[in-house]
Amino acid sequence: MKNYNFQILSPYEFEILSRDLLQLHLDAFLESFGEGQDDGIDLRCSKGEYIVVQAKRYKNFSSLVSNLKKEQIKVEKLKPERYILTTSCSLSPANKEIIRKLFKPYIKSNEDILGKEGLNNLLTKFPSVEKNFYKLWLASVDVLNNILNGQVVNQSKFLLDDIQEKIGVYVENKSFEEALTVIKSNNYVIISGSPGIGKTTLAEMLVFHLLSKGMEEFVFLSDSINDGYKFYNDNKRQIFLFDDFLGRNFLQNTLPTNEEKQILRFINKIQKSSNKVLIFTTREYILNQAKQKFDVFEKDLSKCVLDISKYSTLVKAKILYNHLSINEMPFEYVDEIIKQGYLLKIIKHTNYNPRIIESFTQRKLWEETKASEFPSKLINLFDAPFLVWEHVYENQISSISRIILNSILISGSKIEYDQLFKQVKVYIEQNKNSFDFTINNHNFKLSIRELENSLIQINKNHDGSLVIQYQNPSIQDFIVSYINKDKVAKKYLINSLHFLKPSLNIFSLKSDLFSNQKIILDKTLLEYLQEKLLDRFIKLEIDSKLPKYSKPSEDDNYIIKLFLIFDFFKSKSDTLKAFIQNKFENIIYSENITNRSIYEFSQLLILFYDTEKFDSERILLNISGCFWDYDDLGYLYEIKGLFEEEFENYEENGEDIIYEIVYDITYGITNTDTDEIEDLRNYIDQLKSIEEDFHYSLDNRIDELKTKIRRIEEKEFRQQDNFYDEFPDAYYPQRVSYIDGSLSNYISNQEEKESRSQSYEKPRDETEIINNLFKSLE
Predict the structure, then answer these.
(1) CB of 410 closer than 8 Å to CB of 462
(2) Which terminus of the chain has fewer CB atoms gathered within 10 Å of its CB, N or C?
């Protein structure tokens, strides 16, 4: 007979197991319900005999009886014809008799009381059920004995409590099957991924699984692959685990001589064997470091890359649920998370990470706060994921790699490889007194490889250029939080500004609505930023993502930079205002201003225009060709209000510049190539808006678009009719018409069908399932 320990299951999992077994045992369908206030019903059969089932997961009989006494009143109200109880604890005949008397007359016989032994009996009878409960099978007494009796080499003996805890929180997902598939094909697997994602946990589950399947010996490799050669035994079924492959030794540049060649030799040896498995775990950036340092690692090693994006919302929910269940978080805290609407926010958080969950559950952080305040403190932990990234950032990557990560922050969320190199070069040059190295193509490339797939990701544009961004939003959140605690680091960033627009987007005053996502500057740093911007104004570029075609002119760049600086500081400084005004006056008559900077030019013109100082006619002539489309007319309208008198003079002299601009733009709107009716209606609205703002009659252009809409509608109607008439009525028995009234009957029948279909109970959505899952912790 099976001998499973049901304590390894969560309360929800135990209920589902009870349902699956009893449905087969009773040959009846059992309804499941949302958790929470269940009124004494976990499962129910209401067809035929009215049966109520209650599933109780308790460690011992005394705890079970204490709870069952509270259930008596509920059962009295329900008055089922038959009451069945399942429980995870062992029951003696005397125990069953006590329970039967508690629920007399609803429990018909002691056979309707199923303890640990009874459920194991049903699992023996219905072995197909255990396939759906992997961790139940893995934590069975027989399997655990196999694991514990397997010889462990080079590591302390497996401890039963540790194994059960790890199995208890583990949620099987695609990564497990992927890893097993790779092992079956290659006899080895490299599990790589970001810190805290669950690489070691997956490796341990694989070890437990393989030991339970007949492997005899587990060899743990801690520092060198030489231990693998030392303990290799041709006659034994062995599992080798090299956790944190290359890890600390490689980072400290103490990799033993020819270690890389020895590793590949060992892999080849394992692949040729028939009774060996080798499992590596590694942080992705360390594997990349090894590849760039040792050519032999460029070989296409089989990998199972553990990627958090593979986890479905439900799997993430189960990981969180298992940790809360195993670490016995009081339900009042869980209930507050649900009631305050934080449960799905945590599970779907961009920074979701099993290591964060493990940290706050094992340390029982809820004990430090009130239940009502805990949800907001928990979400703050996800918002600032120091636990995952701080150690890596400070100790495990090179100085240039840290500078690259900081440079991405002030260069935009995505940046091309060449542009990033330019920004990193500026960073090092502007802070050269703090660094004892320079940047070149070689060491930059090495650092990019070090970071790839762990802290950054590299993609290709359609033109083949490389684009770099953070691997995960949590990395940017961490860097922002980290730098916000270090005034010197903030100065490094300010010194390094090169791409103006993304740089200013990442800086903020404390009053900013999104200040938790930005680098906060106090008054002193704000003045420092202003000083640096004015000092390096000419060398600054607008953005790292400017188009390669139709680039702004030099004067466009000049104007845009002036506006960006003015807009960021909101002219709070007289020195800054005077600087911008002086620079603007130097370029106000430029003939090289294009549509690319017309918005910024119009805003600065409105701010600094002086009727006595400026030649308005010259300005207007220079910018008259900069208004290209409907959006540009908004800027023209603002300028019109500024030069009201000048425009009136133009009209009197028959030189209406505004009319010429409006004519060209409205002509372009009217002569559009689109056949989308919705677009054409939007264009009509635009023409009406232009009429209202500039007082020109555009009725003819509006009529043109209306005519085009009518023609398109008529064409679509004819096409529909022609398509319909190509087929005989036999193929379209549902054909209807307006004439004989069958259309209204048809519509009425369809609406009735739809109403009936909507009246059926819809399956519970994912949110409800997850909420019910966590309510079962009560």
Answers:
(1) no
(2) N
Alpha helices in 594-643 (DSSP H): 598-608, 616-623, 630-642
Asked if 498 contacts 426 with a C-beta cutoff of 8 angstroms, the reply is: yes
In the chain, the largest separation of any two C-alpha atoms, in whole Å, equals: 111
CA proximity to 621, closest of 563, 653, 662, 660: 660
pLDDT for the residue numbered 11: 81
| Whole-angstrom distance, CA of residue 642 vs CA of residue 608 | 11
**Per-10-residue mean pLDDT for the chain, 778 residues long?**
80 86 88 54 75 87 86 85 91 92 90 92 88 76 74 69 78 84 90 79 88 86 80 91 68 54 84 92 74 64 64 87 86 92 91 82 83 90 77 88 96 90 97 93 93 82 81 82 94 96 88 66 94 95 76 90 92 86 93 91 90 82 87 84 73 69 89 83 91 88 92 79 47 38 45 39 66 80
Rounded to an integer, what distance in angstroms lies between the CA atom of residue 493 and that of residue 402? 12
CB contact set of 750 (below 8 Å; sequence gap of 6+)? none
Per-residue 3-state assignment (H helix, E strand, C coil) for 215-241 = CCEEEEECCCCHHHHHHCCCCCCEEEE
Q: Which of 375, 357, 205 has its CA nearest to residue 281?
A: 205
pLDDT for the residue 357? 86
Instruction: Go through the chain and tell me how many residues it has.
Output: 778
Both tokens of 478, joined, read 């961490």
Please, what sign has the CA dihedral across residues 531, 532, 538, 544? negative
Q: Where are the domains of the chain?
A: 6-132, 138-309, 313-383, 395-602
User: Hey, do 6-132 and 138-309 end up sharing a CATH topology, with the first three levels equal?
Assistant: no
Query: H/E element holding 151?
Result: strand 151-153
Which residues, 6 or more positions from 530, have their beta carbon under 8 angstroms from its beta carbon?
569, 573, 575, 576
CA distances (Å), origin 78, targets 18, 65, 231? 20, 20, 64
CA distance 526 to 521: 6
* pLDDT score at 756: 38
Which residues share a beta bridge with 457? 469
- What is the amino acid identity at position 734? Q
How far is the C-alpha of 188 from the C-alpha of 380, rounded, in Å? 39
**How far apart, in whole angstroms, are the C-alpha atoms of residue 620 and residue 412?**
35
Provide the token pair at 363. 């340390």
pLDDT value, residue 245: 75
Long-range contacts: 248-251, Cβ < 8 Å, 24+? 249/223, 249/224, 250/286, 250/289, 250/290, 251/286, 251/289, 251/395, 251/396
Query: Considering just the CA atoms, what is the radius of gyration of the chain in Å?
Result: 36
d(CA 280, CA 288): 14
Secondary structure E strands in 157-253: 188-193, 217-221, 238-242
What phi and psi, each to the nearest 5 degrees, are found at residue 612?
A: -80, -25
The C-alpha atoms of residue 430 and residue 539 are separated, in whole angstroms, by 12
Name the nearest CA neighbour of 592 among 555, 645, 630. 555
pTM comes to 0.61
Q: Can you give the pLDDT at residue 735?
A: 39
**Tell me, which fold does domain 138-309 have in CATH?**
Rossmann fold (3.40.50)
DSSP string, 397-438: S-HHHHHHHHHHHTT-SEEEHHHHHHHHHHHHHHTGGG-S--
Asked if residue 271 lies in contact with residue 250, where contact means CB atoms within 8 angstroms, the answer is no
Q: Which two tokens stand for residue 491?
A: 């100065």
The backbone region for 277, taken as left when phi is positive above 0, alpha when psi lies in -120 to 50, beta otherwise, is: beta
